[in-house]
From TrEMBL:
Domain MDMPI C-terminal: 152-251
Disordered, as annotated region: 64-86
A single Gene Ontology CC term: plasma membrane
Organism this protein belongs to: Pseudonocardia ammonioxydans
Pfam families, per database record: MDMPI_C, MDMPI_N
Domain of life: Bacteria
Family annotation (NCBIfam families): maleylpyruvate isomerase family mycothiol-dependent enzyme
Protein name (Swiss-Prot/TrEMBL): TIGR03083 family protein
GO MF entry, a single one: metal ion binding
Sequence ranges assigned to domain Mycothiol-dependent maleylpyruvate isomerase metal-binding in this UniProt record: 19-140
InterPro entries attached to this UniProt entry: DinB/YfiT-like, Maleyloyr_isom, MDMPI_C-term_domain, MDMPI_metal-binding
């Protein structure tokens, strides 16, 4: 996928970011902040909200400063909610997403630090969109609320995650052994090629493209369940996903792709 998104793509991601972030804010607004988040061990909903809201502002402040190095999250202005009150926290979370989009709008193509090297400021819109989405899943799991997500958005979340992994430097403990392949297949009819991923080892790095093929392991499920699977929000052997071939390939992949 292009690392320089066009304006229509940026605008689409911006709209979905605001929608997903608002859904997360609404969930947090009606929940006890002290509830523990099982998919983020050691966190409560209070900490999850602070993480997402601070992250939006963190990205925004790197963009506005033209950062060429990572900003220490502890130095983010306004990085904590002004009060430990769910409606106040929800409003603070919504304001954080707006602050990010305002920063990007000044110059979407301005280069800025990212996890995978300098990228246009607009790169952060898609990143923060999927950060909000996965943490909405965390909040939904913690509170027992249902988690629903459009198949197209879930599939894009899988692709965005693979793009981050592909940007990592080569490592001895690569997620796949050299020559090994992993195939992800979303069962949603409407996705077509965008719902299939062929992942391969590439000299200690991750390489991938959309497509169908035979892998050493194949993992099938809805795009939503694949997203939760690759991000370790459901177990490797969860009944919502089907693993064909060598299950150890899938388990090793998950063990070595923590963020």
């Amino acid at each position: 996928m292009s690392e320089t998104p066009d304006r229509s793509t940026v605008d689409r991601h911006a709209g979905v970011l605001m929608s997903e972030n608002d859904r997360l804010a609404a969930l947090l607004e009606s929940a006890d902040p002290a509830v523990e988040v099982p998919t983020c061990p050691g966190w409560t909903l209070r900490q999850l909200a602070r993480h997402v809201g601070r992250g939006h502002r963190w990205a925004a402040q790197m963009i506005t400063s033209g950062a060429t190095e990572r900003l220490d999250p502890r130095e983010v202005a306004g990085g904590k909610p002004p009060a430990d009150d769910p409606p106040v926290v929800a409003r603070w979370l919504r304001d954080g997403a707006a602050e990010l989009l305002d920063a990007v709008a000044r110059d979407p193509q301005a280069p800025v630090w990212t996890f995978i090297g300098p990228r246009p400021a607009a790169w952060w819109v898609r990143r923060r969109l999927h950060e909000a989405t996965v943490h909405r899943a965390d909040a939904a799991i913690a509170t027992g609320a249902g988690f629903r997500i459009a198949p197209e958005l879930a599939a894009d979340g899988v692709s965005e995650w693979l793009g981050l992994l592909a940007g990592r430097p080569a490592a001895d403990d690569a997620p796949l052994a050299e020559g090994a392949t992993l195939h992800l297949h979303a069962t949603d009819d409407e996705l077509g090629a965008e719902g299939e991923w062929m992942i391969r080892a590439d000299g200690g790095r991750v390489g991938w493209e959309h497509g169908h093929g035979k892998g050493d392991a194949a993992v099938r499920g809805t795009a939503a369940d694949l997203l939760l699977g690759v991000l370790r929000r459901i177990p490797a052997d969860d009944e919502r996903i089907q693993v064909l071939g060598d299950p150890q390939v899938w388990r090793t992949w998950l063990a070595r792709t923590e963020y």
